[in-house]
Amino acid sequence: MKKLAKQLIFYSALIGFWALLAKLHIWPPYLFPPPWGVGHALWDGFADHSFWIGIAVTMKRMLIGYSLSVVLGMILGLAVSSSKFLEETLGGLLVSLQSLPSICWIPLAVLWFGLTEKAILFVVLMGSLLSVTIAMEDGRKQMPKIYGMAGRNLGASGFRLFWSVLLPASLPFIVNGMKQGWAFAWRSLIQAEMIFLSLGLGQLLMMGRDLSDMSQVMAVMILIVILGYLVDGLIFRTMERRLQEKYGLTPA
Amino acid sequence: MSTSPQNMYPSAVPPVPRTGVRPHVLHGKPAASVTTLPIRPVAEVVVPKVALDEISLSYKTTSGERLLALDNISLEVTPGEFLCIVGPSGCGKSTLLHLIAGLHPQTSGKVLVDGTPVSGPGTDRILIFQELGLFPWLTVGGNVEFGMKMKNVPKAEREEKVQYYLRLVHLSKFRDSYIHQLSGGMRQRVALARALATEPDVLLMDEPFAALDAQTRDLLHDELERLWAETGRTIIFVTHNVREAVRLADRVALLTFRPGRVKQEFSVTLPRPRHMEQTDVARTARDILDCLRDEINKSLEAEYADEKRQ
Predict the structure, then answer these.
(1) What pTM was computed for the model?
(2) Residue B264: what are its φ and ψ, rounded to 5°?
């Protein structure tokens, strides 16, 4: 409760400061909109359904692109971590490709797929696939060897060893990889949407720019932050915390 | 948790009558003469439960040298015997247990169980690891059940046995707890129950009580002795604590430092139950320790030499 009170005071003060700056008219309102202007834009956006549609379109893409990258990333990560050859060859390539911002894939995506849904999904996939793969690979390596030995010692082998021991033993690492993948996928998607005519949140933001409507730009930015936080902070952190508690990784 | 771990122990452990059939005390006899001593007429006829036949193990270090870890080890363990293997750190005693468990292949020689060579892990030999390796994603009950599940034991029977073995180690109330909620001594007992529940003939224990405080360790010694008497298992127990070995074992095998060889074997025929603080336990431990001292010095010297090199 105390934490909530602190946060409430902090955000009230932040908005108050923002309102004060806007009231002082240092910059014209079309460059620096006041909080109530942004509030209006949020209200209008939801009232004329454009924000609802934007959120729906963006989340649908997120679900498809992210699911794809999680499934492919896990397979790739498993493959790389279980073969010395793949680790020394493909593993290195993946790490170096990871330094490439996903927006760099946009020209290729447009050329290969045109201005289509596929191109957006491709950018999302390339943005998050590598981080999921690398997290999976690291997880397999960091998993304490003792569990595999204990499992074999107690008579587990083959698929049952994988399913009943190796998989649950690496679950904390897998969830961590999924969380990282989500963060990368989210950024990549918004970036891609800002460039395409795409109906998503990214395009709504660019529309604000084109109309010189900074209230709308900031309203969409706030939406993106809130949505990103909801998924990351509520879903993934909760999953992570529960796992850590159960596995005794943090003092419960 | 309402009950503190200490309350879970029985207030008194019934004495274990295990005297009479054991050979007389013999200290400081070389390995060869111990095995040929005809004091145990029964043991002469019975096929050894576990036999190590000239086991050697060498491996490549990171610098590319070949290191001989175990050198030509031969040991026999009779059914129902409690054997302790003692040696300085780095003598390969844990590795030896891993070989018996079938988790690693040896370079040469054979591990025989009931006269049949071992080729991999088997639930007739269960190893209790030094780090335990309990599964944190399973409850206490789930951990104990695990080995039986892998053996496809029917559910009703598993239920019954989980209950039985948890009662045996005094953890019935903690069946639904997770591992991280338990104290060190309780975790030890979960590991013991998990190992016993697969009903192995041979229990391999790798310094299981090294990380525990003295009181908890003493209580677990009593419990282990009781379980051994009740279940008639063969136990091979590795420790660096000579007193602990004398407290528990029928026979103590002493390993040399790098490469590990059997330096000597000692029969311990002090009446049970014994206690770590007993004078005759201390005296026997002293004899063994005198023999071990050279090896400990060698192990320390090697450690210091490593430090100088760095």
Answers:
(1) 0.71
(2) -160, 155
